[in-house]
Design brief:
Shape: globular
CATH architecture of one domain: Alpha-Beta Complex
CATH topology of one domain: Spore Coat Polysaccharide Biosynthesis Protein SpsA, Chain A
Number of helices: 15
Distance between the termini: 66 Å
Order of helices and strands: HEHEHEHEEHEHHEHHEHHHHHHEEE
CATH class of one domain: Alpha Beta
Radius of gyration: 21 Å
CATH superfamily of one domain: Spore Coat Polysaccharide Biosynthesis Protein SpsA, Chain A
Number of strands: 11
């Protein structure tokens, strides 16, 4: 029995250290390739940004991208709602503040019933985009300087159709925002990078991704994806069905969302864990499913198992092991925060990064038990078994 427990404990440590080494190898490998690659800067990049007002950090995010350094000529297409008066005013103010940046403001009616609002905007934006490269960028996401220069060359690799980045969260303005930021910053690299050593990526991070216009034209753009509420996986599946690969880039980009209260926190986390159940887990192959469960889902429970064993079977050896396990975790997360995530997590929140690992299984279980109804940017959305959705409650128009 003791030998079995020891073996499991060593396996848990090996899992964490193995992922750490894989992530280090990923960034070192891509950095070496990056230094030997010259971007084709004659290609114009059209950056499509669906925008919806409401978050107080929105304008800083948008302004940050307008100040971004890149070798590529760019145009921004800001896609807003006709009835979003706050977005109309705020976007025009930013356009006036940065007259040297090419920004096209496109105001659209509400998406028709059962049509994804984001996909509705992307389809319209694609029609008006002039660039040979199409980038999709969420309105809460800020690219680092040279982020485009690092991501776009991935599109020249054999059979690659979409290249995408790695998210981390920036907002620590209150307790709930800090919790969400720690959820992402403690798991992002550990979730998205290691499995790519075992299989080609089977989904993308929809906050930022790039595509060649000529490839988009070959796959008929975003046509047929209008009814998919999980847009990132729908796009990934669309390109894969046409024989294209997805490429994970080392571009780490910040996201800022201010979480108002506990209800906002739980609704956001619930949506994040419901979406994979309704998309990825229903559509990928058995092999990919096994990799997903072994590298992402099951490993999420390990920190809780370690603490649970200490509580149920307290001993000096169990306590020492727990300290070693979480010490290794603390070292890994601190290294990631410093080297790759732009020190987004303040030092005083490092312990919260560890604590968050203990409650992640709770969020997964809650999502499994919850009804397939989510809150998304002021809208209440019902997810159907066939992958479609219905908007039960529309967003109230923001007041100025």
């Amino acid at each position: 029995m003791n030998l079995l427990i020891l073996s499991i404990g060593l396996l848990f440590l090996a899992e964490r250290i193995g992922k750490y080494l894989a992530i280090e190898n990923f960034f070192q490998r891509e950095d070496e390739i990056d230094r030997s690659t010259d971007p084709l800067v004659e290609s114009q990049v059209s950056i499509l940004q669906p925008i919806l007002s409401g978050d107080p950090t929105l304008w800083d995010c948008l302004a940050g991208n307008l100040q971004m350094t890149t070798s590529y000529p760019t145009e921004f297409l800001w896609l807003i709602d006709d009835d979003d008066a706050e977005a109309q005013i705020g976007c025009r103010q930013l356009i006036d503040r940065y007259p040297d940046v090419s920004v096209k403001l496109i105001s659209l009616p509400q998406a028709p019933a059962r049509i994804s609002p984001k996909m509705f905007k992307l389809i319209e934006g694609l029609q008006q985009a002039q660039g040979q490269i199409i980038a999709v960028l969420d309105d809460d996401t800020t690219l680092p300087d040279r982020g485009l220069d690092r991501a776009i060359p991935f599109l020249d690799r054999p059979a690659v159709g979409v290249a995408f980045g790695l998210p981390y969260y920036l907002n620590f303005s209150n307790t709930w925002s800090a919790l969400v930021s720690c959820v992402v910053n403690s798991s992002s690299l550990l979730t998205y990078v290691p499995y790519t050593f075992l299989t080609a990526p089977f989904t993308i991070n929809g906050m930022f991704f790039v595509m060649k216009r000529e490839v988009l034209d070959r796959v008929d753009g975003f046509s047929g994806l209008e009814t998919s509420i999980v847009d990132d996986f729908a796009i990934a599946k669309h390109f894969r069905s046409h024989g294209y690969l997805l490429a994970q880039t080392p571009v780490c980009h910040g996201i800022s969302t201010k979480i108002k209260d506990a209800n906002h926190y739980f609704s956001l986390l619930n949506r994040w864990f419901i979406f994979p159940q309704e998309s990825i887990l229903k559509s990928i192959s058995i092999r990919e499913l096994a990799i997903f469960y072994s590298t992402a889902l099951i490993s999420t429970f390990i920190p809780t198992i370690v603490v649970g064993y200490l509580v149920l079977f307290p001993s000096m050896s169990a306590a020492i092991y727990t300290l070693i396990y979480f010490g290794v975790n603390a070292y890994i997360l601190t290294q990631f925060n410093t080297k790759y995530l732009n020190k987004a997590t303040p030092d005083r929140y490092i312990l919260l990064l560890l604590a968050i690992q203990l409650i992640m299984p709770l969020h997964i279980i809650l999502a499994l038990l919850s009804p397939r109804r989510i809150e998304w940017r002021g809208k209440t959305i019902e997810l159907n078994a066939d992958g479609s959705f219905e908007i039960i409650k529309q967003r109230s128009a923001p007041e100025i």
